[in-house]
Design goal:
Layout: H1 2-13, H2 18-28, E1 49-52, E2 60-66, E3 74-82, H3 85-89, E4 94-95, E5 100-101, E6 112-118, E7 131-141, E8 150-154, E9 158-163, E10 172-175, E11 180-183, E12 191-192, E13 194-196, E14 205-211, E15 220-221, E16 229-230, E17 240-250, E18 253-256, E19 260-265, E20 274-277, E21 282-285, E22 293-294, E23 296-298, E24 304-312, E25 321-322, E26 330-331, E27 341-352, E28 361-365, E29 369-374, E30 384-387, E31 397-400, E32 403-408, H4 419-426, E33 435-440, H5 447-456, H6 462-471, E34 475-480, H7 504-520, E35 527-529, H8 547-557, E36 566-568, E37 571-573, E38 577-579, H9 591-595, H10 597-600, E39 606-609, H11 618-621, E40 627-629, E41 635-637, E42 640-644, H12 664-677, E43 682-687, H13 709-721, E44 725-727, E45 730-731, E46 769-774, E47 780-786, E48 799-804, E49 813-819, E50 829-830, E51 834-836, E52 842-847, E53 852-858
Parallel strand pairs: 1-9, 11-19, 21-29, 30-48, 32-33, 32-43, 33-34, 34-35, 35-38, 39-42, 42-43
Antiparallel strand pairs: 2-6, 3-4, 3-5, 3-7, 7-8, 7-9, 10-13, 12-16, 14-15, 14-17, 17-18, 17-19, 20-23, 22-26, 24-25, 24-27, 27-28, 27-29, 30-45, 31-44, 36-37, 40-41, 44-46, 46-47, 47-53, 48-52, 49-50, 49-53, 51-52
Helix pairs in contact: 1-2, 4-6, 12-13
Amino acid sequence: MANKKIAAAACLLLAAGVLVISACTEMIGAVAPKRDIMKPYISVQPKSASYHVGQSVAPKLEFKIWDWEAEDGALSYQWFSFADIEAYCKGDAEAVTELIEIDMAAADVQNVLTVSYNLPGTIAASAAGKQYFYYAVVTNYNPDAGNKDRDSVQSEVAVLSFSAPGEPLVPIIVRNPVDAAYGWGEMLNTLKVEARPAEQSDRLTYNWYINDKYSAKGGTLIPTSDLNFLMPDYNDLDLGENYYYVEVINQTVAAKSIPAIITMEPGLRAAAPVITVQPKDSLTFTGEALGTLTVAGTSPDRGTISYQWYSNSTASNKGGKAVSGATGATYTPTVSTSKADKYFYYAVVTNTNTKVKGATTATAASNAVRVSVASPTTETTANLYMVIPDPGQTTNKFQYIRGYGGMDVAWGNFPRTSQADTELMYDPNRLGYNILRIMVKADYVDPADTINMLITGDRPDYFENVKIVNKYGGYVAASPWTPPKNWKSNNSINGGGNLIPRYYSLFAQYLRTFAQIMYDNGAPIYCISISNEPNYVAGYDGCEWSPEEMRDFYIEQGRFTEGIRGWGGGKEIPTVLTMNGESANTPTINNAALQDPRSKANIDLLARHIYGSRDTSLWNTYKDLITKQDADGKDVYMEVWMTEHNINSANATGYYNDSTWNYVWRFMNDVDLVIRLNNENAFVWWASKRFYSMVGDGQFGTTDGSPLPRGWGLAHYARFTTGMNRIKINLDTIGKTNTLKDNTTVTHTDRATSVVNRLIDDMDNDSVRITSFISQDGNEISLVLMTPTKTGSGGYDVGTVRVQLPEGFTVKGITAVRSTGGRANEIFQPFDGVQLNRERTMAYIELGKGQIVSVKFTK
């Protein structure tokens, strides 16, 4: 953009020079390139028909073309016929008409062109069992096109079938399965045949076949395929052409489809394996036998998975030593358990795929795990006694935790988030975030132009950062601040205007195209919203939407991403999910869309920002509005993501404080508000790379690319609670005195005045916070414990917390990390201050003032 502005200025200053004028004219007034040939289309296909012998036969076939513009080229057509499907497969169709030009003036008042073919009169006297096959080819000729002067399209095959009087009629195939080509390992589309019975009382069944040749004879019947669609199985496929056809059956007669050719081309390179089962930390009491470590991985591109275990001297999945012979999915360490000690292991999972052009192998390292040998504690007393009640009871189980992360801001006044920064944040063994929010810019009406501007400008990692998040099994949420200015009432990308309703479809297509571009460039997204902060009038990129406008947009445009592949949780998903307008404060601006079942059906996720009405929660107050039915007809809650908040000291003097440990607590209280008080499913901070955020940008005392206290604080939640459900934790006062190490008496929790888990929204809340979470399989329980201060003062020194685990939960492994202050890597260290009783049902955790401690218990 800067270069173009300079050039334009030069044109104005030097307009008197002929050469300069010529150069400027070439730059800003060049002749537009020729358009590519417009591919012809058929709006209404010729129709098949099924008759009894002697029945009156329609005298002609016809197809229709709607709204063809003469300036797009001159159309012509030709009809063809063939004896049977085998003749078609061999290319033995014969022309039954000359090439005939279509008279554009023949279109009716609705601009519909109808093209007919008069059938031979002999067809009416056909015998039972006879079939006739026809199709048309439409060609567009345009000598002014830029790429080629003509292009053609073939119609569906029209089949005329005859049965004896009183016998079943042959089913009518309306649309044959469609050919497709894929790179090896890509997600395959469903093959589908559209058919209808010739008589309303007929009932159709289907037999699908895979063949080794282009033919509708023979082949292998695919079991359990009695539906009008089929998902091809990679186990049946090989490189090159693969052939499928279907028999559509009505009692004793059948219609066969034209075979579909599924062409499998080599993939680019072996895909990184997805680790589906991570090894777990284990705890063995002295003298006991060591447990077994387990890892499991899958190949996204149908390669072969193999394993190699490594030992290490630290809790890292890099730089270890391969364990000889440890090449299975399980491994039992061979160390001594005669004395207390600790050992570290990880596995490298390899995907080998020979059906690719490039590298045939790709690897992924598992989490590093700690194998501990320890003695059980003999302690029975503590300062604080807590119990986790049965998490199987619905009253004790709360929201699912989708995850945590931040935003890559695409504005030029924000620092570039490099691939190294994204690796730091989203590597599970580093900060461990899993949600990235990206901006959908709208500088041009074509999203491809806008993305290209970003990538060739100051955001060269736009695609690559998304790829990194997807590689680690994360989720990418895309948010538009505004539609292109051309479609807004104020003709500006800035706030102060709304999207004009007649352009709803264009904006829906803009977002759809954006999602498709991301997929096509190997950077698919998980979800896309329709607006950032639709209820805030911004002096920068922005657009206002009323609640009714958002409702109407979803009613009119539906799930506008339908069929655009996305990615989330380490796997491809059939459709990018849709997200509502992300409110600047209260989420109730979406009530109109949620109260109307037509719009609600098209919204997959909800989002809000907590700049205002911070403690207004959809979960707590509007459960009926966020309840939907899943595919099984079961009532489920829609996920609510907190997708933006920013807290900083608001002036240059205070900015130096924002990256210090004492100022981490306002940030951590923000996370606690979203997760514990508001029961929301995700926490996403504003700019992830900034001096007041998770990674430093080199300003106000920070080091560019280094983790900050807020970054490590969020890592406690990200690495210990992602993918789990929050569960209840109770203060147990039966026969016990809860007196903290600093002599504070604790009598209750979850009240406005509680010392533990104060039930209040206060950015300087210094109550002790203890939250608990359980994995989906029930085999892991995590605790996040923190003792905030008010920027260095106040807070509580707890001492020992005794946690009674749920009945039946016997601990086999413990992972614990503590942050106590300082900067960078010094504030996220393995923690040995967690002990178990002999029965492995009671945990004792040391918790001082101004600390964050995270603990994960493995069953």
